[in-house]
Amino acid sequence: MIKKPLAIVTMVYNEPQHLTVWKRHYGSQVGEQACYVLDHGSTDGSTENLGDINRVRIPRSPQDDERRARAIGQFCASLLEWYDSVIYVDVDELLVADPERFPSLISFAQSSFLPAVTATGFDVIHRLGTEMALDYSQLISLQRRHIRFSSAMCKTVLIRQPVTWAPGFHCCTEILPDPCPNLFLFHLRYADLDSGLQRLTRTRVQPWCSDTVGQHQRLADTDWSDMLSSMSGLSVTEGELNESDTRFCAYRRSVQNSVSERVNERYRLDIHINGDELYHLPERFIGRL
Questions:
Q1: How far is the C-alpha of 149 from the C-alpha of 154, rounded, in Å?
Q2: Helical H runs in the chain?
Q3: Which is it for the CA torsion 221, 227, 231, 232, positive or negative?
Q4: What is the residue range of 202's domain?
Q5: Helices (H), strands (E): how many in the chain?
Q6: How far apart are CA 241 and CA 184, in angstroms?
Q7: I need a surface site. Which of 40, 147, 191, 220 has the fewest CB within 10 A?
Q8: Beta strands 93-97 and 179-187: pairing type?
């Protein structure tokens, strides 16, 4: 049976800004008809006009990351009946295959026959005091030029077989994570101070399945602002983000080393390895996110 090459999936609840970026980015990569938005009861109208993107409505319920990972895993597995590969990303995560080697995510997916691929992850950082508020209707890379390595964003994102994701989608049971040097995940949570605080206002008050989960989504404004300010003030380094870049290789190696110590654990990599400097986004990525 002939299958389509690649589908992209996300799940949202009232994410007007990030969904605008997600739609533009992935629609241009695979075509809107291969994009799937699981709408977890949005009430702000942001999922009403998605063009040819497939919208799947599910009932609103308290945030439960265990349930979410289970449901999304089953949904993505079902899409593998019609697609060779499926990508799941959160709505604030943009995947880019290295532009020096691949013109699109489709060409990257067709080049790999691994059962699953883990991206190398970076947070996009708002440099406070020097960069204006983010305009989500415009390309992110034309407004933000600094990124920070984050092992938490080294997620297993592309699958060619059904997998069992851990909550947060950092890893899965079936395959040991190994960050690919040619697939990059750019996380937008820290890309804008004001919109980040606005999102916190929503996530703090939304229902959760337990008082103990989702604490990073319920921080006080001052704590979140201080965290972003600290990241924004890191020194800046230049690097090409390829296998000749010693810092880049060292970050990937640190994740690989952490995996060897966690083979039998649910979270199979250390999600607390963070860069102690900011990378200046290499020119080849400008215009790609």
A1: 9
A2: 16-30, 65-79, 105-111, 193-205, 221-232, 246-260
A3: positive
A4: 4-285
A5: 6, 11
A6: 9
A7: 220
A8: antiparallel
Domain count within the chain: 1
The pLDDT score that the predictor gives to residue 126 is 98
Cβ-Cβ contacts under 8 Å for 278 (sequence gap 6 or more): 125, 127, 146, 147, 148, 231, 234, 235, 236, 237
List C-alpha distances in Å: 270 to 12, 222, 254: 26, 27, 9
pLDDT digits (tens, 9 = 90+) for 43-52: 999 999 999 9
Amino acid at 60: R
Where residue 167 sits, what CATH number does that domain have?
Answer: 3.90.550
Cα–Cα distance list, 248 to 94, 149, 182, 245 (Å):
19, 9, 12, 5
Query: Where does the pLDDT of residue 264 fall: very low under 50, low under 70, confident under 90, or very high at 90 and above?
Result: confident
Q: Cα 47 from chain centroid?
A: 19
Question: For the whole model, what pTM was predicted?
Answer: 0.96
pLDDT at residue number 206: 79
